[in-house]
Amino acid sequence: MATTNKKYAKAVYLVDGRRTPFLKARGRPGPFRHVELGIYAARALLLRMPFEATEFDEVIFGATMPGPDEANIARIVALRLGCGDQVPAYTVHRNCASGMQALDNAAMSIASGRSDLVLAGGIEAMSHAPLLFHPKMVNWLADWWAAKSIGARLGVAASFNPRMLAPVIALLKGLTDPVVGLNMGQTAEQIAWRFGITRGQMDQFALESHQKLHQAQQNGDLAAEIVPLYDSKGEVYELDDGVRPDSTLEKLGKLRPAFDKPYGLVTPGNSAQITDGAAALVLASEGAVKKHGLPVLARLVSTEWAALTPAEMGLGPAHAIAPLLKSQRLKIDDIDYWEINEAFAAQVLAVIAALKDRDYCKQQLGLRSAIGEIPADRLNIHGGGVSLGHPVGTSGARIVLHLARVLQQKNAKSGIASLCIGGGQGGAMLIERSVS
Q1: What is the reported pTM?
Q2: Between 430 and which of 18, 80, 301, 401 could a Cys-Cys bridge form, CB atoms 3.0 to 4.6 Å apart?
Q3: Is residue 74 within 8 Å of 91, Cβ to Cβ?
Q4: Which residues of the chain have pLDDT under 70?
C-alpha cells in the first residue's frame, strides 16, 4: 500500500456544479435521454460562468450505457452546448465510478498543465437501457437475410420459434459480473453474511436514507445543486422523485428478497433505485481561477483506486479509503464529512464494519490496526442512492459535488467521497475547502 503523500501535482479547483433531479425508472423509458440530461445539467452551470463555452480545454463525462446514437456522448454534449468544433471531448467508463473517473481525469489533466478549464461529470438514463435480441434470434435473422430462394426462406421460416423473441435485458446483463456470475445484489448478500448484517439493520438504514433526503428537500439543502427539468409535455421535475417520506420499517419489512430467494436479506426497499440523472462540474487551474475571477467551491486533493474480488465488490470503498487516508497521513477523525454511495444498505454497512474490524484491516487492507468507525452523523447526511437513486455513470460525480456543498453549508474543511464499483473495485476522492 502506498505511503507517499500523493496529491495532484498542481492545485485543482472545483468551481461549481449542477445536476438534474434523479428520476426513478417506472417500467418504461423516462422522459429524458442521456444527452438531454447532460445538456440540462451543463447548460445551467455554464449560464453561471463568466467565460464562454469555447474556452474549455476539454469536456469529459462518464457514462456506462448511452444509446446507440449517442456514441462518445461527451462530444455530443460539448457540441450541443456550444463548445465549438475545437474543444475535444471524450467519455470514460468505470462502471459505478464513471463520473468520479471523469473528475479524476480532468484533475490529472489540469495538474499536469495540459488543461486549465475542464467540464466534467456523469450522465446516465438507466430507464433507456436497450432490450436486445436473443442470440438465437440474431442468428435466425442472419439466416433469413442470407436465404436467396423461396425454398431457403421457407426452410428458415420453419425453424422460427416464438420463444426466440424473448428480449435480453441489457440492464440486467450490465449489473451482473461475468467473471464470478453474480449480480450486484448477490454480492451485497455475500458481504452482509460476512459481517453479520441483519435485515433489520438494512431496513433501518434505508428508512433513514429516505428520511434524510425528505428533510433535505424540505429544508432546501439541495437547491443549490439541482436544476429543474422540463419535458415535451410541459411537466416540470424539480426534486429527486424516488424519495418515500411515508416509508416505515413495517412497510420495508414486508418486501421480499430480490436477489437470493427466498431467504436473502437484500430487497428493493434497501437497494439503490434504477434512476436517470446527470451531473456537470467545472474544474479549473489556479491560473484560470485568477484569470476569470472564478469562485472556488472546493479543491480536489487526491484520488485513490483499488481492486478486490468481484464477489465482494461492495467493499471497494474500504479498499480505496484505506490507502487514501494513509497516503495523506489522515485518520477518520480528521475528515469532517463523508459520502459513500448507497448501492445497497448492506454494502454501506459492510464498509463501515470493515473499516472498524481489526482483522479485516490487517488481513485485507495490509494495516496494523483498524481504521476506525465513520460517525453516523457525518455520513450521507442528506440521504443517498437508496432514497435518491444511483444512475450508474453519474453517481461518482454527484457525491463529489454534493460533498462540496455539504462542506460549504457546514463551514467544514475536508470530506471524502467514495463508492463501490461493479467488477470488484473502489474509488475514493479527498476534497478540501478553506474555512472562515
Answers
A1: 0.94
A2: 301
A3: yes
A4: 1-5, 436
First vs last C-alpha separation in the chain? 35
**Of the candidates 180, 195, 133, the residue with the CA atom closest to the CA atom of residue 160:** 133
**pLDDT number for residue 436:** 63
Nearest to 44 by CA among 268, 181, 238, 286: 238
Distance between CA 387 and CA 212 in Å, rounded? 9
Type of residue found at 214: H
User: How far apart (Å, rounded) are the C-alpha atoms in residues 19 and 225?
Assistant: 6
pLDDT of residue 1: 47
Q: How far apart are CA 79 and CA 89, in angstroms?
A: 9
> Is the Cα torsion angle 178, 183, 184, 186 positive or negative in sign?
negative
Q: Do you find a cis peptide bond into 317, omega within 30 degrees of 0?
A: no
Query: Which run of H or E residues covers position 187?
Result: helix 184-195
Instruction: Report all structural domains of the chain as residue ranges with CATH numbers, in order of start.
Output: 184-221+300-431 (3.40.47.10)
Q: Which residues contact 12 (CB under 8 A, 6 or more apart)?
A: 106, 107, 110, 111, 283, 284, 285, 299, 300
Considering only CA atoms, which of 303, 298, 329, 301 is closest in space to residue 411?
Answer: 298
The pLDDT of residue 4: 57
Q: What are phi and psi of 197, to 5 degrees?
A: -80, 130
